[in-house]
Design a protein that fits this description.
Layout: H1 3-47, E1 52-72, E2 78-86, E3 89-91, E4 95-109, E5 112-127, E6 136-147, E7 153-160, E8 165-166, E9 169-170, E10 180-184, E11 194-205, E12 207-211, E13 216-223, E14 228-232, E15 238-242, E16 245-253, H2 254-257, H3 261-264, E17 275-279, H4 285-293, H5 296-314, H6 320-344, H7 346-369, H8 372-394, H9 399-417, H10 430-439
Parallel strand pairs: 1-12, 4-13
Antiparallel strand pairs: 1-2, 1-3, 1-6, 4-5, 5-11, 6-10, 7-8, 7-11, 9-10, 12-17, 13-16, 14-17, 15-16
């Protein structure tokens, strides 16, 4: 048994486990920095406005009516009495047409940034006619708008089709919505139906949602932000996403939302029927770095394996401490990638970190391998390895396929280079190997 080779393999396995733990520590650091970034984003939102969800308008009819109640006592005698009963109700619009634009900016907290927006929204709503039934007493009529974070309300302009200006007031009667504003109405405006025009300026961060409560909903949104993520219960009917921004249009009707059941909770609540858009960053440095670190142990194995292969083929012994320095150079790549990506963006950070680590390993391997030719071969191999990792990160949908072929290619190359290697002599000093060959 070749004890020298067995000891070397055992040493490399132990070293690989140590380096795997070091890579894990880098992964923890990525998560820690990402949590700090998320905290900074939350702080910015806490001091400006959170993601917004807009609901409305809804018509709240507050009324009561007289009802006759018949009571029967223990002796079977009946007694009739009059009492007033609440008959308040919510009325949905027959139609809502909405158009909006998002002006997106970035606010910074140290090296971290959050995307905030100012939405300019126009709402055209048609509400059905309403008249109280005989015996009903109207106690108030209000238009209700729900806004998840009312701090973002910058301006409100409301009017009817006849040109009458309406005054908005803070708060929502009846606690229909947790936050928002309402508009007291003269009941006479509802005798023939009401056409409402509203213009809102609404600030928020990260995401904007709209709840389609009308019988027929038509909402359009555009922005110069080029990376939208369309979320919620309904996707846009049409969308255009380009480098100069996006535009989208949703059309949702009662057949899709369930109609009046939205108001009484039979379909899971009106909040769950929202649709909207999130302002994402597709090249988020922490997400990309975290994905890269997940391949860290594979990189460690391939790096150590590459030098071990050269040691066997060139018969130039490499000390375990030298393996350790080379392995920690790989770990340092991921730490450099994290640190640089916070300032330069992920692609440039990856290029700088990869070039620096490949150059360092190449210069160090020149002494180990005894020639620039061998060092250049290793540099080319590791350069292709880092290029392959970047392709894996850029092609998330094909990452498994590309990773499998990468490992297959490395294994095939190793088998080809070692096809004629005498493993009985591998790892032995040259003199000892010669003696062994002579005895054979």
């Amino acid at each position: 048994m070749n004890k020298a080779l067995a000891y070397k393999l055992l040493t490399l396995i132990l070293l690989a486990l140590v380096l795997a733990f070091a890579v894990m520590k880098v992964e923890w650091k990525v998560q820690e920095r990402a949590a700090m970034r998320d905290g900074a984003v939350r702080d910015i939102a806490d001091q400006s406005a959170h993601a917004q969800q807009l609901v409305g308008p809804l018509l709240l009819i507050s009324c009561s009516e007289r009802r006759e109640v018949v009571d029967t006592d223990d002796k079977g005698k009946t007694r009739r009495r009059q009492m007033r009963q609440d008959c308040s109700r919510l009325i949905r619009p027959a139609q809502i047409n909405g158009q909006g634009s998002l002006n997106v900016t970035e606010l910074h907290r140290g090296i971290y940034k959050a995307r905030v927006y100012l939405a300019t929204l126009g709402v055209h709503a048609v509400l059905p006619a309403f008249q109280p039934k005989p015996g009903q007493t109207l106690e108030g009529v209000n238009l209700l708008f729900g806004v998840s974070d009312p701090r973002g309300l910058k301006s409100i302009a409301l009017g009817t089709a006849s040109g009458q200006t309406l005054d908005a007031r803070p708060g929502v009667p009846g606690e229909v919505f947790e936050h928002g504003f309402h508009v007291p109405l003269n009941p006479a405006l509802l005798e023939k139906g009401l056409t409402l025009d509203a213009k809102l300026e609404l600030a928020g961060s990260g995401r904007l949602d709209w709840v389609p409560l009308a019988e027929d909903n038509d909402f359009s949104l555009r922005s110069a932000w080029p990376h939208p993520s369309f979320d919620g219960q309904f996707l846009p009917e049409t969308r255009t996403v380009a480098a100069d921004g996006f535009s989208a249009r949703w059309r949702v009707n009662d057949f899709a939302t369930g109609g009046d059941r939205l108001l009484n909770g039979k379909t899971g609540g009106w909040r769950e029927s929202a649709f909207g858009v999130s302002l994402i960053d597709p090249v988020d440095a922490y997400t990309q770095t975290d994905r890269a670190v997940r391949y860290g142990f594979l990189f460690v194995l391939l790096t150590l394996g590459g030098f071990f292969l050269f040691e066997l083929l060139k018969q130039r012994p490499v000390h375990p401490l030298q393996y350790s320095l080379i392995g920690f150079a790989v770990v340092l790549f991921f730490l450099l990638l994290l640190a640089l990506s916070e300032h330069t963006g992920f692609p440039l950070a990856y290029l700088i970190a990869a070039v620096a680590c490949v150059a360092m390993i190449t210069g160090y391997s020149r002494t180990l391998l005894g020639s620039w030719k061998g060092a250049a071969s290793l540099a080319g191999g590791y350069g292709l390895l880092y290029l392959g990792l970047y392709k894996l990160l850029a092609s998330e949908d094909y990452a498994l396929l590309m990773g499998a072929w990468l490992i297959f290619g490395v294994l095939a190359l190793t088998m080809y280079l070692t096809r004629r290697l005498d493993w009985r002599k591998a790892g032995l000093p040259i003199a000892t190997a010669s003696t062994t060959a002579a005895n054979d």
